[in-house]
């Protein structure tokens, strides 16, 4: 694995899932694998789970960790090429990346969608600079359009919770929010489910269809009740409109996941990447109920990170 | 020791003081005791001493440390149960705690009094959520009403500085300030002194009496000079009114500790938990004088933290 | 080496350059040298390179690292002696330093010029407090008037890039900026070049002469083209006026370093301490061109820090 920014960096999904579950059984099996190597965790945005789980994963492998809250601790970054930097920005992102090249063996970066320019976000205006200028492996800690470490953890969590001898039905359902939120988690979960042996459906209101480049031939329903029917797993997540970018078209029905809606399902397990807005995206009763596997999902973030760091270390070591 | 949020989590105060002094003699005696375990240090408020001393204590025990500046690095937290989260808050504290449960073997948290609602503060509205939802031991790094790691360090410091064959007289004296400050340090020091073999007196202006639930039958004087007479230790600290919550009733006398006032005492040692406002709470001459044991007190924060982390690790290990 | 705040803390420059280059060959040669010792990295200002390279250097030596973003994570600091602290400041710098004395074996601090009072900056109003109150070695991570770890890295970089049997011509050239910037890097580079076996010239517009206490008898030209002639190394850096302190006198010529100007030189290598404002201080073509050794310079920050930490540890160990 050269970089890790999407499911397409994985050769064999079943194999990495198996490896990750093995790591979960014994996270301290390779405590010196990363010794003498340094991973830089660069946060351009807030983070709780990703921040902590990545640190734990790195520690489990004996990697040195450098955490940089870029905005607060370093310099205001310029992202546009060719600019005369006579404004508020103090350091060009490409220079920051070139310096990280000198200091780190692996660069991991969180760079959310700006939600202002559809073109910038679709083109991954920030992550693409890391991929262009980094001379060491790059790991996405969530970028404008994807959240692959989350998606790998999601696959692990579904695998752990499915013992039946048939494909589970997995529904990604849109949920209400008060602010325009990126499509990254929805896109990413979709891509990974397309490669899993599941029956996958997306439910969202009219006007909220995800980018066709991600959904491809996945079935998209605009009726939540219909989608939830017989579901084995429900993934709850808000996103804003892709077509009319970052806009929030009015939704008449109540899409918040409640126990009443859960009754439509096959006693479905409920998932969410967190943070979640309680009683807006889903009700307290669902969040705190026994169908929720949301905290287990959060825990699996450690192991998805550790599996990816481990694969990347294998690649680095194979070159030495 | 299951949790550590007050003196009531200590079985035997003399024993833990002895253990702490032993740790101080050789802080690196158990450098692998915490190996493979992770402590999360969660700061909802500013911290210098607690932040650094806790990290050193953890390192001395071989514990992995995750530090989270919750407000700046993670998400804006919701504290109210049952709320429809359609405002500024992004993650409910109980979900953050449940995630910390997945990532940490010990959770340590700093959550100051909000100084807005007496009821919230008295009921430890934040710490209580940690105690309710945490599935791992919880350590207070100062909460709304107590600062127990400070108080343990204070007990150590007094013990180190008292060699006579009689009870020392210890005075907790109120000091001026310009803002309404919590009663946590005062309450906490009071509770611990009540269990120490000392003659303990509190001095504060009228209107500044601490919560009776903490002071109990401790003598409270409203005349500073009278209280300071023959004191062996003086603990200087501001707090705002408890009765008329967070208000600062006018004080006519000057309660700032000066060398002149020190002359009333038995050449008393002077203590303060820091940060201190010089020439407001106490004078430069006292702070920089030879009676001050304030920096020694700060140093002892390392060992009080290490003693508590060590006790908690014993408890964790006894269950495995 | 007792402290490290300028070139005058170095006994033998050639010797430390040789040691640093040796460390660069094998940074992990002494991985336990710092074991059981703690370095506190105190940032009163932003930092990318210094923050990360210092952490790596410390890790390479097995030092424990405590990083403190003083403004955001701790308390608002008071710097004036004797003040009645009844305003916005919560902790006096000298008390913070005395606490750091208790917690750290080495204190490293970044404290930029305030650019408001020439007297405060010239007198190193903050660093001087560290030097006065610290009881452990103090390392400057850039102060009001100097940036010595950068300068040592600069010396390494020049040494690595010069194989000819004659003195190289090194030109420190002023560059445009939009804000008044400190003279620290310029001063510091000047001091170190004065001790290197190089032919050193400073070029800056009229009104931008550096403090004579730093430039001494170094040649200062006000004509950039004349200075660049036959240069082997060009160090690009902005600073504001020293004489008319922190003012930016109007400059008619364009001092931005371009490829056209590079043609005046002896195919000079280009240096900059970063962060750099592209197309203002120097052009994209220079920054991304083959004459730039700027990222190599950034990498050498690791080894200059490691060499200094190592010398300081030798001093500490020699006392034990």
UniProtKB/TrEMBL annotation, chains A, B, C:
Statement: the UniProt record of this protein carries the keyword Repressor: no
Alphabetically ordered keywords of this record: Amino-acid biosynthesis, Arginine biosynthesis, Transferase
Role of this protein: Catalyzes the transfer of the carbamoyl group from carbamoyl phosphate to the delta-amino group of N(2)-succinyl-L-ornithine to produce N(2)-succinyl-L-citrulline. Is essential for arginine biosynthesis.
Record text on subunit structure and interactions: Homotrimer.
Highest classification ranks of the organism: Bacteria, Pseudomonadati, Bacteroidota, Flavobacteriia, Flavobacteriales
Source organism of the structure: Epilithonimonas hungarica
Metabolic or biological pathway: Amino-acid biosynthesis; L-arginine biosynthesis
A GO term, aspect molecular function: amino acid binding
Residues of the Aspartate/ornithine carbamoyltransferase carbamoyl-P binding domain: 3-160
Coiled-coil features, chain-numbered ranges: none
Residues annotated for N(2)-succinyl-L-ornithine binding in this entry: 142, 177, 237, 277
Pfam families on file: OTCace (PF00185), OTCace_N (PF02729)
Family: Belongs to the aspartate/ornithine carbamoyltransferase superfamily. SOTCase family.
Keyword Ligase: no
InterPro entries the UniProt entry points to: ArgF'-like, Asp/Orn_carbamoyltranf_P-bd, Asp/Orn_carbamoylTrfase, Asp/Orn_carbamoylTrfase_sf, Asp_carbamoyltransf_Asp/Orn-bd
Listed name of the protein: N-succinylornithine carbamoyltransferase
Binding site for carbamoyl phosphate: 47-50, 75, 110, 147-150, 273-274, 301
Gene name linked to the record: argF'
Range of residues in the leader sequence: none
Domain Aspartate/ornithine carbamoyltransferase Asp/Orn-binding: residue ranges: 185-310
Catalytic activity: N(2)-succinyl-L-ornithine + carbamoyl phosphate = N(2)-succinyl-L-citrulline + phosphate + H(+)
């Amino acid at each position: 694995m050269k970089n890790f920014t999407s499911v397409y960096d994985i050769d064999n999904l079943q194999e990495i899932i198996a490896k990750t579950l093995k790591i979960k059984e014994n996270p301290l099996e390779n405590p010196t694998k990363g010794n003498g190597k340094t991973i830089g965790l660069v946060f351009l945005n807030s983070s709780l789970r990703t921040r902590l789980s990545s640190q734990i994963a790195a520690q489990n492998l004996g990697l040195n960790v450098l955490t940089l809250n870029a905005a607060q601790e370093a310099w205001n970054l310029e992202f546009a090429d060719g600019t005369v930097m006579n404004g508020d920005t103090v350091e060009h992102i490409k220079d920051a990346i070139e310096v990280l090249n000198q200091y780190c063996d692996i660069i991991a970066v969180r760079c959310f969608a700006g939600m202002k320019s559809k073109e910038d976000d679709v083109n991954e205006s920030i992550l693409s600079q890391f991929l262009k200028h980094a001379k060491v492996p790059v790991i996405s800690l969530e970028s404008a359009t994807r959240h692959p470490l989350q998606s790998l953890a999601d696959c692990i969590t579904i695998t752990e919770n499915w013992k039946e001898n048939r494909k589970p039905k997995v529904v990604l359902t849109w949920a209400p929010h008060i602010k325009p939120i990126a499509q990254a988690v929805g896109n990413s979960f979709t891509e990974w489910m397309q490669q899993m042996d599941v029956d996958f459906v997306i439910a969202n209101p009219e006007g909220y269809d995800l980018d066709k480049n991600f959904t491809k031939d996945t079935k998209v329903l605009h009726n939540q009740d219909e989608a939830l029917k017989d579901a084995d797993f429900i993934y709850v997540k808000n996103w804003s409109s892709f077509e009319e970018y970052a806009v929030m078209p009015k939704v008449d029905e109540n899409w918040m996941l409640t126990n009443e809606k859960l009754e439509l399902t096959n006693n479905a397990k409920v998932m969410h990447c967190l943070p979640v807005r309680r009683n807006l995206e889903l009700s307290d009763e669902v969040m705190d109920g026994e169908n929720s596997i949301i905290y287990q999902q959060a825990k699996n973030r450690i192991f998805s990170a550790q599996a990816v760091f481990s694969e990347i270390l294998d690649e680095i070591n194979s070159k030495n």
